[in-house]
């Protein structure tokens, strides 16, 4: 670490390389937050936190939606002191009781009570991609609502007449006269409904699944490409511009680009499946070259979407025998930001309550996150990244908690700085850094 800091000071390591190297250590040192920068205990009153989302402009405001139909808005840049909490506890050496009694918590800006906007549980929340003045919510009460954040009231409601499990937003502007804003909805029906926010109507549907659809996700770069997963174990890739919209079906048996038989029968063969059970998790990487899927067969699969013609290839990456995923409802899969670390990491919430952190390149388990405190049995039902180069994740649970996972730094005990020798060493370090700055300036000719 000291040599890395020295290289950064003298300029042999760029700021991005320095940050990437530091962030690489985060994923092996994630620990549950305690004391500060956490959410209030039982912040959703024992009801499952089904969904969360952080706006991507400042990574400051977070929405959380609950199974009791309530919605909360949090300010992650403001802290509220907890009455009666001690301010002297150190994070090192805390006991389990400390996780239930924080000193400060994130500030709650607004609260939409249960049964006020939605009649049943909130299934999905998402900020509008361009700014935080609007967000969208969906519920098991068959509705998708468009919200004005400033007024905190819904300005439009879509009634889909079916339970809504999740949705995904696509916005792109080709020029000053042509733009599109579509919301793809996965519901309790064997088709995907596309909602057009510009006309406040349903544009069309994508049919082809056999059973309800559990998850949808737009391509991060090609805004007309959509992936969907269903109860039938299939994952379909769609191009909404085509009359025959289905481009390909992911086949778990297709592992070689030279297998022509899989290509010929991909769209018609009834036995093509991505998983042996319902598919309830989807996520693209930032470039859209890789697709990750999760199914009730306890498998996570990685698909190469660009190296061959359709259908894509199963990369056969093994994530080990520990993953458990038996609930036929949408689950969160979260990828660490691509350029945050040298390798990319996938966070997977297992049914046993733990969160597994895998390396995406080979499926190796690098960390297993287990909750501490009085509540340890509720499994994770929602996850969100706190922002690039933070290594911090917020996870909602089935028992009404939002848990903070962040890197744990090794801290030198305070008493180590009280003797004369260490004080003199600190002064010597200051002199060394001052001389180093003078040397750097002279080398740069300033």
TrEMBL record:
It holds the Pfam family WD40. InterPro entries: Rad28/ERCC8/Ckn1/ATCSA-1, WD40/YVTN_repeat-like_dom_sf, WD40_PAC1, WD40_repeat_CS, WD40_repeat_dom_sf, WD40_rpt. One of its GO terms (cellular component) is Cul4A-RING E3 ubiquitin ligase complex. GO terms for biological process: proteasome-mediated ubiquitin-dependent protein catabolic process; protein polyubiquitination; transcription-coupled nucleotide-excision repair. WD repeats lie at residues 58-84, 115-157, 206-248, 272-305. Gene3D superfamilies: YVTN repeat-like/Quinoprotein amine dehydrogenase (2.130.10.10). Keywords: DNA damage, DNA repair, Repeat, WD repeat. SMART domains: WD40. PANTHER family: DNA EXCISION REPAIR PROTEIN ERCC-8. This is Piso0_004835 protein. It comes from Pichia sorbitophila (strain ATCC MYA-4447 / BCRC 22081 / CBS 7064 / NBRC 10061 / NRRL Y-12695) (Hybrid yeast).
